[in-house]
UniProtKB/TrEMBL annotation:
Lineage: Bacteria, Bacillati, Actinomycetota, Actinomycetes, Kitasatosporales
Protein name, per record: Uncharacterized protein
Length: 203
């Protein structure tokens, strides 16, 4: 075998090796894009299911069925956890494709969680709030009690509506934030607190 033949054979071998390397790189990139597509599909399905659950929550809030709300929140937690696992895979794929570091996506979308506490709600008045007014007749006492009862009812309805609106809003934001797991987790935690507060107003 001449030197020229050897050189040509070595060149062909190197070329073949290079082509195989390129083909393998293309396959890796294709698998990465397929994985991102899978993550996108899972996120889309989870958000669709989440919006359906949010609609069911709205019905429970309108009918004041407080016993059914925790199950809805459980479903949302499960959906969020499923997406969170998938988004971890997405981060790894992005790191392969673009060198993007873990946590970059979440860092760009720091969760903003609206809060609602008992202190934010109007206080329900009681008979102990009354001044030292002296009533001249039983009719005066009855009218005072009636007015207090109406005021208590009105404020209770306001508290129920405020907490229901907050819970509905937080859940809606959580579903929209499924793709940013830290935000979804924080919002669903607030939804649990809001559920407890709303339930205390309904009971």
């Amino acid at each position: 075998m001449t030197e020229a033949t050897k050189a040509a054979k070595a060149y062909a071998t190197d070329l073949d090796r290079g082509l195989r390397s390129v083909e393998e790189a293309v396959r890796v990139v294709q698998r990465a894009h397929d994985e991102i597509a899978r993550c996108d599909q899972l996120l889309s399905r989870a958000q669709e299911s989440g919006r359906k659950a949010a609609g069911e929550l709205g019905v429970l809030l309108r009918t004041r069925n407080h016993t059914g709300v925790p199950a809805i929140l459980d479903r949302l937690d499960a959906l969020a956890a499923q997406v969170a696992r998938s988004e971890t895979d997405r981060v790894l794929v992005r790191r392969i494709l673009h060198g993007e570091a873990d946590g970059v996506a979440d860092a760009r979308h720091a969760p903003v969680v609206p809060r609602l506490t008992e202190q934010d709600l109007p206080r329900i008045p009681s008979v102990y709030d009354a001044d030292d007014t002296q009533y001249e007749t039983l009719q005066d006492v009855w009218e005072s009690d009636h007015a207090l009862t109406e005021e208590q009812y009105g404020i209770t309805q306001q508290r129920i509506q405020t907490t229901a609106d907050h819970l509905r809003m937080v859940v809606s934001r959580a579903v929209d934030s499924f793709g940013t797991p830290s935000a979804a987790e924080a919002l669903l935690a607030e939804a649990r607190r809001a559920c407890t507060l709303w339930t205390s107003c309904v009971r």
